[in-house]
Amino acid sequence: MTTYKGVAARIFCGSASASVKIGARTVSFKNGACAQTSQYVTVNIGTILLGRSASKPNYFGLNIGKVFGSGKAAAKDGSYKGGALAVAFAGKGYAVRADTIEVSLSGNRHKGTFTGTLLTGGTLSGSFAC
């Protein structure tokens, strides 16, 4: 645990990376963490705030499968709908509508691609690797 501009935060580290296309801009994230269980895949890269702040540090977060007891298990490679996907870059947050998230897992669930519709409109897409 650490703080970011006075707000509690968690910094993720490891070998995970992601590339995210937001509108016409492509943003890269690296040095994050992945976790795979028989129920879900989760990817976290950067710094996540555990409270509110006007400014947001760079962060990529993806949860797909049966996370927190809900959803369909993501136990193998394949396509999945729903989940959670959030991105923050250059101080701005980008939240994705859960009902629009589509993830394709491959490489024994160690990589994948994703798409979704932003809450503010527009689309977000990209790929990740663990």
Would you write up a description of this structure?
- With 130 residues, the chain is mostly beta strands.
- The protein has a single domain (2-129), classed as Lipocalin, CATH 2.40.128.
- 0% of the residues lie in helices and 60% in strands.
- Strands 1, 2, 3, 4, 5, 6, 7, 8, 9, 10, 11 and 12 form a 12-stranded antiparallel beta sheet that branches.
- It is globular, with a radius of gyration of 14 Å.
- The model has no long low-confidence stretch (mean pLDDT 93).
Summarize the structure.
The protein has no helices and twelve strands. With 130 residues, it is an all-beta fold. The relative contact order is 0.20.
**Counting H and I runs of at least 4 residues, what is the number of helices?**
0
Q: What is the CATH level 1 assignment? A: Mainly Beta
How many E strands?
12
Oligomer: single chain
The structural domain count equals 1
The outline comes out as: globular
Mean pLDDT across all amino acids? 93
Low-confidence stretches: none
User: What is the percent of helical residues?
Assistant: under 10%
Strand content of the residues, in percent? over 45%
CATH topology type: Lipocalin
CATH architecture: Beta Barrel
Radius of gyration: 14 Å
Structural class: mainly beta
Largest sheet: 12 strands, antiparallel
Distance between the termini: 22 Å
* H-E string: EEEEEEEEEEEE
Helices and strands, with pairings:
Layout: E1 2-4, E2 7-12, E3 16-22, E4 25-36, E5 40-49, E6 59-65, E7 78-81, E8 84-89, E9 92-95, E10 102-106, E11 111-117, E12 123-129
Antiparallel strand pairs: 1-2, 2-5, 3-4, 3-12, 4-5, 5-6, 6-8, 7-10, 8-9, 10-11, 11-12
